[in-house]
Amino acid sequence: MVPIARVSNTILAVAVKADSPYATMKDFTEAARKAPGQLNCAMVQGITEFTFWGYEAAEGLKIAQVPYRDITASAVDLGEGRVDIVMLSYAMMQSQLQAGRIRALVVNNATRAPVAPDVPTAREAGYPSLEVEGLIGLFGIKSLSNELKQKIAADVKTVSADPAIPERLRATGQVVNYGGSNDFTDAITAQRAKIAATVRAIDFKPKL
Known about the structure:
Blueprint: E1 2-10, E2 12-17, H1 25-34, E3 40-43, H2 47-59, E4 64-65, H3 73-80, E5 85-89, H4 90-98, E6 102-107, E7 134-140, H5 146-160, H6 164-171, E8 174-179, H7 181-202
Parallel strand pairs: 3-4, 3-5
Antiparallel strand pairs: 1-7, 1-8, 2-5, 2-6
C-alpha cells in the first residue's frame, strides 16, 4: 500500500475524572512519580499505547495499565473513578466530557483542537513525549499510477475546502489536515521513527 493523501487528524487527549486532584498534566506526573505502580491508566491499543509508554519512560514513571476488551468503556470507568487517567480519541470521551464527569488535561496533537481550544497541547504542557497525531488518509495499491494518485489527492483537496467538511469531522472528533502524497508519507515516516525510538527506550518485546 502507498499513501495517496492525508485527509484529517483524529483528536487524541489525556483526561482525568472531573473532580480529580490533578489540575494539570504536571500534577498527575508528579503524583505518579511519588507513587510508582499505584496509579493506573487505560489507552487505545497500538500507537496510543506506545506514545503513553514513551511518556512514562521519559518521565521515569511506572503506571499500571488496565486492559480492556472494549476501550470505549474506559471513559465511563474514568468518570466513575475506577481508572486514574485515560488517553483516547476525543470522540470516545466526548459524551463524558460533555456530561462534566471527566476533563481533558492535554490534547496530544501538535496544535490545539477547535473543539477544546482552552486545553493545552502536550508540548505546551511540557510533555512533548505525549505528542502524537492521529493520521487519517487514503492509501492505494502500489501499482496505482502516479496520474491516478494525483487525481485522487486533488479531489480530496477540493472536498476538504468545502466549509461543511470541518463541521462534519468536528462532530467525530477530527480536524481537517489535508496533505498530498509526500506530506502524508513524511508524517507517517516521522511517526514510525518516534515509535521506533520508544520501542528502544522501553526495550519492548512483542508478545508471541
